[in-house]
Amino acid sequence: MVEPTNLRRPLKEFLSQLRHLHVGILDNSGGFGQRYFFSQASSSQALFPNADHSKEFFTFVEMATRLESLSISCTHVLDMDMLSIVHFRQLQVLVLARIKVSMEILQGLILQNESTIRALDFRELELKTGTWQSLLLSSCSLPHLKYLYINSCGYIQFPPYADGLLPPIDDPQDLETFHFKGYDALGDLQRHVMRVRDAAGLAQMTEYDFKWAYKEPNLSELVFTD
Fold first, then answer.
1. Which InterPro entries match (predicted)?
2. Beta-carbon contacts of residue 194 (< 8 Å; ≥ 6 apart)
């Protein structure tokens, strides 16, 4: 029988060498696995619910200590406060989908990579504390932010900011909130991105691009060397 430590050591060493990591959960069956629809839990979901194993999921991510791009995509909304962010200090691309997180944790992750961040992509991301206004305004300090996509982001259910109602499935909103200053801050950040792109000689992102033309950040376009 192979000792567990003999299995973990090579994996940790391998992950510590990675520069780019996309990790996701695919099983969306069971309660809250999808936003607009419901399906019966699969046999594996019934035995090992995604939410009950969040810590193991984020511990795996933590082992990739030298990342330049990190993408986390979930089905059931997982709590990113379980992720230790201390080693992530050279991120250029951050993509988060169906995650809930305290603003202080997310803001700390962004600002400790202030000099390197090129792209932020948040989809169905829920703040547990703080406001989108504060988070977005603080991101206006990122000198190399060339790509931004915010879609269906809001708050966990706490007043006075949470909307509480899902928008029509064919009409997603950038932010889902009654705190309208968040929209002003989003506009400020979008204009900041446009100025950075203009200075870098890149094609401008239009209002349509910011809201509808979703695409994975183009790593070569972001010019990692500046």
1. LRR_dom_sf
2. 204, 205
Per residue in 176-214, is it b (16+ CB within 10 Å) or e — as a string?
Answer: bbebeebbebbeebbebbbebbeeeebeebeeebbeeee
Return the number of other C-beta atoms located less than 10 Å from residue 46's C-beta.
11
Phi-psi region of 16 (alpha: psi -120 to 50; beta: other; left: phi over 0): alpha
Scan for tokens 């000099």, then name that residue: 115
**Residue 1, pLDDT score:** 38
**pTM, rounded to two decimals:** 0.82
Helix axes 181-199, 132-139, angle to 10 degrees: 20
In the chain, % helix, strand, coil (3-state, to 5) comes to 35, 20, 45
Cα R_g (the chain), whole angstroms: 18
Q: What is the mean pLDDT of residues 11-35?
A: 75
For the chain, list the domains and their CATH numbers. 8-211 (3.80.10)
Nearest C-alpha neighbor of 185 from the set 141, 125, 137: 137
Q: In 48-102, which ranges are continuous DSSP H helix?
A: 54-62
Q: Give CA angle at 146 (107, 101), nearest 5°.
A: 25
